[in-house]
Every structure is written in C-alpha cells, then in structure tokens.
Design goal:
- The protein has 291 residues and is an all-alpha fold.
- The chain folds into 2 domains: 47 residues; 217 residues, MetI-like fold, CATH 1.10.3720.
- The chain has 12 helices and no strands.
- InterPro entries: MetI-like, MetI-like_sf.
Length: 291
C-alpha cells in the first residue's frame, strides 16, 4: 500500500509540474520574442560590420561568408578613435563623478534636512530634466564664448553636469526616501554629525542607487552628440560620438566602416553595464534594507 501511495504521490506531483510548465509556456515565448527583438539589431549590426559593400548588397541579413576584420582597423584609423575614445573616457568619468557628488548631496539635503521650499526645488528639478537643453543653446554659446570655455573638455563636462544632474537627483532622492531614518538616529546617538551620517551611513546604503545614476550618466555622456559637435571644433578634443562624421561622404556612406565604428563605440558601454550589473544586484541583495 505504501508503494502504491508513493507512486500516486509522484504521479500527482509530476502532473502538477507539467501543468505548471504548460501554463508558463506563453511567458517563455513572450520573453524569447523580447530577447530576439532586443538582440536582433545588435547581431545584425555585428554581422554587417564584417561584410564588404558587395556582400552586404547581396546578403544584407545573413551571416558574413568572408568576414573582414580589416573593417575595424580601417574604421579605427579613419574615425580617429585613438583620440576620440580617450576624450570620451575623460568626459564620461568626470561627468559621472561630478553628477554622483552633486546628486548625492542634493538628495541627502532634500530627504534628511527638511529644507524649506523643498516642493519648489522638486518642481524645478522636474522642469530641468524635462525641458530640452537645446532651448538654451544660443545664450549658452555666447556665455561659454565669453568665459573661454568653447572648444575645451571642461566646458563640455560642465554642460553635461548641468543637464544630467536634475534627473540623477530625482532618481537618487527616490532611493534615499526608502532608507529608514532609524539609521540616522542611531548615528546621531553615537555622536555623528550630518556630514558623517551622509558619508558613513546614507551613501553606503545608497550605493545601488548611486550605481544606477553612474550607469545612466555614463551612457548619456558617452553617446551625446549635439553639444559635442556644437561646442568642440578642434579635432584633438572631439569625443567618440563625433567619429561617425568621418564615414559620411558627399552622396554616399561606407556602411561597412560605419557599422564597425558603431560596434567600437558601444562595446565599452556594454562591457561596463555587464560588469556592474552583478554588483548592482548584489548590492540590492546584501544591503542593509533587505527584508
């Protein structure tokens, strides 16, 4: 009897598992379609970056029959990536550090110091993050010209700090609001001041939020083109987003080199995101706010 009951139990469990798998099948199908939709253009870009113009015309969507790694060498040289990539690294790192400092201090003040007029500041930040910065291009250009900030990396970095800080502050503020004030009170009881609470308590607990701010800021400053091409004229200060101008001719464009240049441009950001994604998830799992 016990053997029969055990078999019946295993049979019931297997039927439940199969029914559960059948019910979850539509979700797997939808997720698979989303993966194809997301990675399809990137895979197509990678394949076309290895094709010649003739092969791309005959086989635009297929696997390259004769891969041309020379497209990457030529794109690197023609796009002057040896100059533009270091410039973009300097710009992105400086912007990320500056935005994290500004957003961290502003978010702490808005969530912990009970400043008067906080609602007005939030409204101002919403307006600053929603209005297109191109509206202020003409007065900004004249101001930067009078300050001798045209055609310089610091001038471009300041613009990125001003345009990216409002959204970063709102994002980090929403994260700091979820941190219990009991941490602050315990630190105050131990004799800490507000600066020590910020540095030793709030920022360590907020590092997943800071990491999100850093990733979005790095991506935005790395890909920005409009201000870069407007405020930078000398070739030695050009960021990586302007390298695509080298592949445009009068009436045609070398799409093989353009695709290779696109892979070179996005590869650092993809690697950066994949590298920090694990740490972001680990920070959420092991932070002081879990449970």
């Amino acid at each position: 009897m016990s053997i029969i009951a055990t078999k019946h139990t295993h049979g019931t469990a297997s039927r439940k598992e199969s029914n559960g798998s059948i019910k979850e099948l539509p979700y797997y199908i939808i997720l698979s379609l989303l993966v194809i939709f997301s990675l399809g253009p990137l895979l197509l870009l990678l394949m076309n970056s290895l094709k010649s113009d003739a092969e791309r015309g005959v086989n635009p969507l297929g696997i390259p029959m004769h891969p041309l790694l020379s497209n990457y060498v030529e794109a690197w040289e023609q796009g002057n990536f040896s100059t533009t990539m270091p410039n973009s690294i300097i710009i992105s790192l400086s912007t990320v550090v500056g935005v994290c400092i500004l957003a961290g201090m502003a978010s702490y003040a808005m969530t912990r110091l009970n400043l008067p007029g906080g609602a007005v500041v939030i409204l101002y930040l919403f307006a600053g993050s929603s209005l297109p910065a191109q509206l202020f291009l003409v007065p900004l250009y004249f101001l930067w010209n009078s300050l001798n900030l045209i055609d310089s990396l610091p001038g471009l970095i300041i613009i990125y700090l001003a345009t990216l800080s409002p959204f970063a502050t709102l994002l980090l503020r929403s994260y700091m609001l979820s941190i219990s004030r009991e941490f602050d009170e315990a630190a105050y009881i131990d004799g800490a001041n507000k600066l020590q609470v910020l540095i030793h308590i709030i920022l360590p607990l907020s590092w997943p939020g800071l990491l999100t701010v850093a990733l979005t800021t790095a991506l935005a400053s790395w890909n920005e083109f409009f201000f870069a091409v407007t405020f930078i004229q000398r070739e030695k200060f050009m960021p990586i987003s302007t390298s695509f101008l080298a592949f445009q001719q009068a009436f045609t464009r070398n799409w093989g080199l353009t695709n290779a240049a696109a892979i070179i441009t996005i590869a650092p950001m993809i690697i950066l995101f994949l590298f920090f994604q694990r740490r972001f998830i680990a920070g959420l799992a092991s932070g002081g706010l879990k449970g």
